[in-house]
User: What shape does this take?
Amino acid sequence: MKKRKDYKKVFENFDFQKLARWTDARLEKSIGDERIVRNSLKVYSVRKNAKASILDQKEFVTFKKYIETFTGGKILYGKIKSIKNIPVKTLLSDAFSKDLKKRGFTFVGSTIIYAYLQSTGFVNDHEGKCFRSKELKISA
Assistant: This one.
């Protein structure tokens, strides 16, 4: 999260329409940028995932609507009694990850997808003692 601002600068404010048009030369230039992780496979996945997003947009209109096909359009609440019990992935993230890969996305493993679902609020599974649990009205 510390590098988010830098990633936004390097990757066109995460505009997938622009990223889908990036050339190999532009991707190579990004690999040399010290503000980001310079793994060539990950950098090239930015363009590949942007192109896959465009195809998904034609089918689902928004990425949110695509995600809601997995969540039933609801926020999913977990009842975590201890931080030791917080999962790193779930059946939901497994299914979502598998479907993304089938659609041509890369670097979208189940653990990454579960963290994404948590960070975007589709999954709220804070333990009962967590300050966010009370804010989100999650009971332990």
In short: The chain has eight helices and two strands. The longest strand covers residues 76-77. The chain has two domains: 1-64, 71-140.
